[in-house]
Each structure stands twice: as structure tokens, then as C-alpha cells.
Amino acid sequence: MKKLTITLAFIAVFVVGVGIGLSLSALRDGNKTITAITNPDADAIVVTMNEWSYQPNVITVVAGTTNKLVVRNQGKIDHAFVIAEAGVDTGRIPPGKQEVVLLEAPWQAGLYNISSSIPGQTKNGMSGRLSVEENPALNVVPDPNDIQ
User: Fold this and answer.
1) What is d(CA 20, CA 52) in angstroms, rounded to the nearest whole number?
2) pTM above 0.85?
3) Among 24, 51, 78, 140, which is disulfide-ready with 92 (CB 3.0 to 4.6 Å)?
4) Full domain range(s) for residue 34
């Protein structure tokens, strides 16, 4: 029984160590998985809303990828999060609440507007940008020798 307990403890330490190593590697490489260290939604991009901003106000993704967004309202009034060109619209989110949405990044690299659908909020500063970077996997030119 003592050997089983020691073995299970060793496995647990190993798994935690690998997870920390991957998170630190992500930090060093600038990978978005750094959220694994700071929030429970490890595979998500977390956006917080308050009066009158989004944090972060620039979200960077790779063209053609699916990204989970957790949009949290930390303000005192309802807020909304819209990326019209990507089909994202949370609708009104009450204070203290959040919405989880899947962002299907556009296939075209470029900058896309983030705004609020609640009248007056975008004008008061509720705006940002979705920066879509080129996806090298989408720019592959087939080798003529591979075509049958």
C-alpha cells in the first residue's frame, strides 16, 4: 500500500511539473496559452469589460482558427461585445456575468473592429481591434509532383 501511495504521489508531481513546464514554455515563446497560469479557462482568451473599455483592447488570433473567448462584465452597467465581421455578438451581459463564445477567426488576415451593440458605448470608448495574423498552413502551394 505504501508503494502505491508513493507511486501515485510521484505521478501527480510529474503531471503538475509537466503542466508548469508547458506554461513557462508558453510564456517564453509568447504563446497565448499563458492564460493557463492566470485563469481557470486555460484554453480561452479572456476579455474583461468595464466603463468604458475592453481589456485587452487588441486580440490577436491566427486566420482560420477557432478560439474560445470568455467575455466578462466587471463594470457597473450592462455591456456587450461585438465583432461583426466574425459573427460574434454577446448581446447584453449584466454586471458580474460572463458569456463564452467561439470566435471563428476570419480567413483573411487584417484588422477587424470590436465594438458594443449598446447605444452610446462605442462612442464612449468601448472599442477595440481583432488582429488576424496570416496562417502559414493556409498558404501552402502544392508540389506539382504530388498532384496525380
Assistant:
1) 35
2) no
3) 78
4) 1-38
- In 1-148, alpha helices (H): 2-29, 35-38
62, 127: one domain: yes
Helix (H) or strand (E) holding 36: helix 35-38
pLDDT per position as a tens digit, 5-19: 444 344 444 444 434
Is the domain of 95 the same as that of 64? yes
Cβ atoms within 10 Å of 76's Cβ, excluding its own: 10
Domain for residue 148, yes or no?
no
130 located within any domain:
yes
Paired residues of 101 in beta bridges: 69
Rounded-to-integer distance, Cα 41 and Cα 35, Å: 7
* CA–CA dist 1, 138 (Å, integer): 54
Yes or no: say if 53 and 64 are a contact pair by the CB < 8 Å rule: no
| Contact residues for 56 (Cβ-Cβ < 8 A; gap 6+) | 47, 128
DSSP at 3: H
